[in-house]
Amino acid sequence: MxxxxxxxxxxxxxxxARLAAFEARRAAEKPVxxxxxxxxxxxxxxxxxxxxxxxxxxxxxWLLDHYVHTSPWGMVGGLLIGLGLAIxxxxxxxMKLSAQASAxxxxxxxxxxxxxxxxxPKQKRD
Length: 126
Hints:
- 77% of the residues lie in helices and 0% in strands.
- The protein is mostly helical.
- It is elongated, with a radius of gyration of 28 Å.
């Protein structure tokens, strides 16, 4: 009678092996998807900062024009100041994001990182 139970014992083992392989594939895909989604969120955040800076600058310019009667110079100045500050802010945030992306990851050798810390370029010798 033990021979009749052998096929029934192999089925759960086979199912466990297939489930483990599926979970391994899914776990391997997850970091790539998470990194892509984070990059997309960062891009939208930078775009929102640009649009917000321009709109805030225009708003302050309009208020200046409305109360001081300097139309249209308040809006022009507000637009330029808002755009300049927004670009300055975006460049700073983009530099931080770039530094974070090139920093060693705690998850191992992702993206060619050796985990030895920041890479220092070799100096030329004369």
